[in-house]
Fold these 3 entries.
Entry 1:
Amino acid sequence: MQFPAQLIRSLSLADGRVNSALMRRVVLSVAVIGTGQWLLSDVVHLPGGGLGVLSAAAGLWWLSRPAKPPSFREPASLKGWIQRCEEVLNQFTELEMVLDLKGLRTPRELELRRIEALDLPLSLGVVATVGAVLPATSQLQKALAGVHSLDLCIANPLPVSSTSWNWPDDLQELDVLLHVVPLPLRAADLLWLNQLPADRPVWLLLSSTAVMPADNQLEPLRCQLPERWHQQLLPWSGQTDDLRSVLKPVREQLQRSERVRQGTRQRLLGNLHRRWQADLETLRRERFRLLLQRSQWIVAGAVVASPVPSVDLLAVVVGNGLMVKEMAKIWNCPWTADVLQVIARQLGKAALAQGVVELSGQALLGLARLDGASWVAAGAMQALSAAYLTRVVGASMADWMALNAGVIEPDLDELKRQAPLLVANAAEQERLNLAGFAQQAREWIEDRNRCKAA
């Protein structure tokens, strides 16, 4: 199952999703410009639709404004991280009750307590890719003399070809890394560096048997590396006598041992928090898909029992308050029924405005013709359109709740601005699952026919 990248608060938007969002905004902007031009030139008969261009330009500016990203303010202290992880543990406890599951909290609480009690010696990990020559252990010990209680760890070489480029788990708890990088820079070294999180203390020991260039001659190398590494470069000619002076910044950092160790615990808690958030979202989405599958056919059944004009489908979908109430429980959103109805209605309006019902109807008819099926009978298409609208509204509401989980009061003004993008994303995902929806629809209609025959 795929989730929008922005749902996990600690991660940034993937480039592809940003580009997709931008394209949707451009399409909407073009629509605004075309509509404004037509209204003021053909309807109001203003020459050239000049004012239409101005109003359309205003619409273009509004649509092109960057959406306010979901923000997660990382705790600034060890105590703050522990408190934040405790809050997530409580969410697992609540989810155990909602999903009637056991064993969600206990193993994670043990992980948290282990990191809280972590009392290991100060450590420096020395790593390199296959083919790079590391300084001898005796050289490193001499160069780092003066740092008390230091655990020097020489790691196994990192492969130069890999499918995952994931750093080994046994390096995660080391306080500082010294990454030996042979010059000239190799692609494998750059790939490994790119996988290191920004909060990881790492120094790059530039190893070369040639005469090491002066600092101002390192500029070509800096151009190949992200900016975060520019102040972490330690040029070394390979001479034993030079290594101590080269590693002076590393010694100075390690001598602030308490600060370094606290930073390590905070980093480990941050990693734990990100993983737990991903686990929470996976569990919530699994529960949500079951809820949505049930709710969409409740709505379809209501439409079959009492057909309504297409413009009134929204009232039927939004009126299914049971689904949104259960969703609020799943995502720990303590909002009133009125607020939930406002959110569902806003997203439903955006879905209707984007033609979700019409497009789904056409697509379902196309699938029916291809299969030669006769299940699209009078009234059934409207019921299926209502079910499909429920899917899109439910999926976009799930995305909104994931962005605002635990928020006491959602920002409804921000919802109005984000609703078109949320719905467009949900509609695209559901369009990819249209064949599966059609199969569910066949089964639903066959069940109804069997009930009628009985």
Entry 2:
Amino acid sequence: MRAPRAGFGLHTAAAVVVANMIGTGVFTSLGFQLEALRSGFALLMLWVVGGVAAVCGALTYAELGSTIRRSGGEYTFLSHIYHPAAGFVSGWISATIGFAAPTALAAITFGTYLSSVFPVLPARWLAVGLVVLLSVVHGRTHRTSGGFQRWSTTAKVALILAFVAAGLSLVAEPRDIGALPSADGVSNVFSAGFAVSLIFVSYSYSGWNAATYVTGELRDPRRTLPRALAIGTLLVMLLYVGLNYVFLRAAPAEAMVGRLEVGYIAAGYIFGPVGADLLGITLALLLVSTVSAMVLAGPRVLHAIGEDYPTFRLLSSINARGTPGVAIFTQAAISLLFILTESFETILVFSGFTMGLNTFLAAGGVFLLRRRQASGRIPGGVVGAGGDGESARGESGASAETPGTDQPYRTWGYPVTPLIFLAVTGWTLAYILRDRPLEAGLGLGLIAVGLVIYAVTRARDRRTRA
């Protein structure tokens, strides 16, 4: 019997999705939503609608990933479906804004929570130590990397479930939040306040696509990827709805309006005076899994870029244990720079627009991919990274899995499923363009810089080949 292929299985892939999605957003955004909405039904529907959109995106990405079986996420999808320039810009943005900066932010938040409970511990150096430690862990074997991610994510889910259970059983005077639909609640769902709040909920759901960054390292990606994306996203939606229900049930709305620390406030009503310290330690533990997932997934984009462009060839290095060590420690170095300089804060203001544009273009690509398959321009099974369907190797020799006769996963509910995701994401992008022109302009400027870097890189690579 042939030994099973080395790589990540379903549990690890789903853990990467869950850990990437659950950060601090769900513990901090309710206070700002309460400024626009007071209906418990509408507030909970925010997380349901955001979750449905994320699930639709995950199911759409599952088809892309099981057809184009190569790591790299949007970098690989956009390179194949549209043009290598689109993929390069997407990969460059993902490697910096998409992963390194959020890694730094989550690590600093981890340090801040622990430092608030244990003031003798410096927050910034706790953040540095966490990034370095997790980079070493994920730079070892797939078994070590996957094992740590599975257990840290399992602990995260268990802690959240314990918090929800405590909120349902320990609150002495639970609030009637009006969770059932009513005329007022339904009208709130169709209000401008609901639409604005949905943008921030969508940010909290970002990360549902994380497993596509390690597609090429999954065992049986045709089956594993769709299941990991769907299971991980559905689980997070249930946890998010449960957490917000507990927040609203435990603490009065007036105590949370406009406040960032809604988790602390709710914990105080659930556990008493020690609630804040308990939640501080809990959130710090939750963020270990979040940082871990970003350290695991993000470097696969850099690795794919290194395979495709000779200028960045060093990033494609694989160590003796089969992991992309150079890419992992390169992303770690960028994250440490953000931590030590705190310059990442400006980038995070407009990251939602650029990353949203990435996912919008990738999800829309499923229609183009199917059209090409129907016309016979690409095979119905696995296709390579080169974009023409003729080879499993890109221009520079980047390899994808050998084409097979098995058909890829097909998006459940197509074409409605991808259209739902595109509608919600497109509305968000349009809102940012209209009401946040500075952030949108910065995002478009970053894209333009990426195109310039791409042009320079291609010209240099041509001269190198000549």
Entry 3:
Amino acid sequence: MTTNPPGTKLILLITTHRVAPGLLSWPAWEALRSAGRVLAADAGHPQVPAVRQAGVEVEIVPPGSAPALARLLTGTTPGTAAAPAPTVWLGSPDGDPGLTDALARLAVEHAGEVPEIEVLPGSYDLPGARLLDLVSVMDRLRSPGGCPWDAEQTHASLVKYLVEEAYELVEAIEEGDRDTLREELGDVLLQVFFHSRIAEEHPTDAFTIDDVAGDIVDKLMYRHPHVFGDAEANGAAEVEANWEALKAAEKSDRESVLDGVPAGLPSLAHAAKLVSRVRRAGFTGVPDEPYELPAELTAESAGRLLLALAQRAHDAGVDVDAALRAAARGYRDAVRAAEGLKPAP
């Protein structure tokens, strides 16, 4: 192996697979265009076509062979004069397993012969880039050769998991458990991506995760004219009033102020949502339930009492469903204390 001349450099150009090929930083393109040699381990490397289209030749060299390592370390083919220009190695999406260890080992074994090694990031992940990985993972799981269980799921079969994950997320929030909060947010996000991936396969009405994201982006921008338009809003209350007005305009085909309230909500949360709709609409056609304990509870009187409680809680700004869960947790801990046990984690 020939001794490397002064100034020869090996540049390890690393890129992210989460941006389109060819979208490289200016230093990366400068390095490629000024390189004496550009090498890659695989002709299928996503950056190779873009680099070649820019007029830069790329040599395909298996990184595990001795001649390949010689090129990396000396910028030349064994037995020929070394070029003074740097050699650029296009880092593979898999990180070129073993390459770093091989370079370190040969640097020790061939001290004085190896060039300066520089790691140059050629592209960077944008915020949210890992969501692209989740798209790829879900596609792999649902595609032939993926997971048999994931492949047979439907929107209907996943409903119970969606509800369960949502409640586990609520519990993490109420408990103030940051680690669990992060995990449960991921589980809820998975449900959104899972349903969106299933929706892609619909024979007549398919849509994708991009359609889902695009719809919510459009909705958020439309309902925040004080941010994305020229409307003004002074304080959160006015923002909420504007939101409800715009939402009502979108749903102008609804017959009742209660249309659209999910019937699948837990009973107390459902009652609270009905009360919230009635209050916001300023509807006065139905009087409030009287809030008083009857001498004897029946199914009817118990239900009316709970409805009255939901009305009073709404007017007081209390989330009745969250309040009941908090009271239940206190009751649970009191029972465990009476049993000589520690509070539940």
